[in-house]
Amino acid sequence: MNRYQIVSYQAADFFDIKGLRSVIPGELLYKDASELFYQVKQDQFLYLFRHGAVSFFNYTPGEISSFFELVQPHCRNFFSAAFTDELIVETKAPENKISFNKIEIENENPETLRMIMLNVSQSVTLDYYSDQTENLLEETNAYTQLLATKGRLIISGRKLKRFIGKTLLLKNRIAENLYIFDSPPETWENEQLDKLHNDLKKSFDLQERFRDVAGGLEIVKDNLELFKDILQYRTSLLLEWVVIILIAVEVINLFVGKT
Q: Is residue 118 part of a domain?
């Protein structure tokens, strides 16, 4: 059996797919508006995603570093400490078999390798989105704790709006870029490829991890709705007091004018 390594990174917030096509060498085997899949050498493959993930098959650390230097001008918010995930691939096995951090496959055709690289990339992207969700939860919990201990919400309306915007943006990015519950079109007429894809999803626990992220964002959303209602009530109460004061001033002026 031949032994290779897949390494996937969540390397940036965004890759300019159109711009990258002009700088990446190799044979482009698959492309659409959000993905590029290359065969760089006979036994070397590269898979890029618009949402900032990239997967390397049989690359050395030096080649990976050179690639990142090449693509930095074509990405947004490049991560100096990127999220990463790895998988060992052994080819020419008697049958397809997945174990901890390793997969054995019967053949190494590009479609099979692309499917494996897709799932490793989805896993590392989930790690990134999970980290973003945890950050939002921690920030939300800090305000909730203040509300519980001091009985008041210490956040401005502008900051709350920015907070809501960050949450909605993350939810939208997850919906656009994760294909956890959908099988790629290539699997629809290829039973073996479909089975491999489903086995990989189970091995990486993608669906359960996706639900955890979605659940965390739902908690953040519920808290933000509560914060918004509190701020609206506070604003409404302030306006009521302003109206009362203005009426009182008018009444005082009226009495003063008659005396």
A: no
- Residue 65 and residue 43 share a domain: yes
pTM metric for this prediction: 0.81
Only one residue has tokens 């991560």, namely 79
Same domain, 85 and 145: no
Do 141 and 211 belong together in one domain?
yes
Residue 251 contacts by C-beta under 8 Å, 6 or more apart in sequence? none
Domain of residue 239: give its range.
Answer: 123-258
Gap between the Cα atoms of 171 and 173, Å rounded? 6
Give dist(CA 26, CA 46) in Å, integer: 9
**233 and 136 part of one domain:** yes
Residue 231 in tokens: 């701020």
Q: What are phi and psi of 159, to 5 degrees?
A: -65, -40
d(CA 111, CA 108): 8
Rounded distance between C-alpha atoms, residue 65 and residue 67, angstroms: 5
Tokens of 197: 């894809």
Q: Splitting the chain (259 residues) into consecutive groups of 10 residues, what average pLDDT does each group show?
A: 92 91 90 92 93 95 93 88 89 87 88 93 92 87 77 69 77 75 74 87 89 86 76 54 57 59
Burial environment of residue 146 by CB neighbours within 10 A (0 to 12, 13 to 18, 19 or more) = middle
CA-angle at 72, arms to 70 and 74, nearest 5°: 95
pLDDT in the model for residue 53: 94
Residue 2's pLDDT is what? Answer: 87
Q: What is the CA radius of gyration of the chain?
A: 26
Overall domain count for the chain: 2
Are residues 128 and 52 part of one domain?
Answer: no
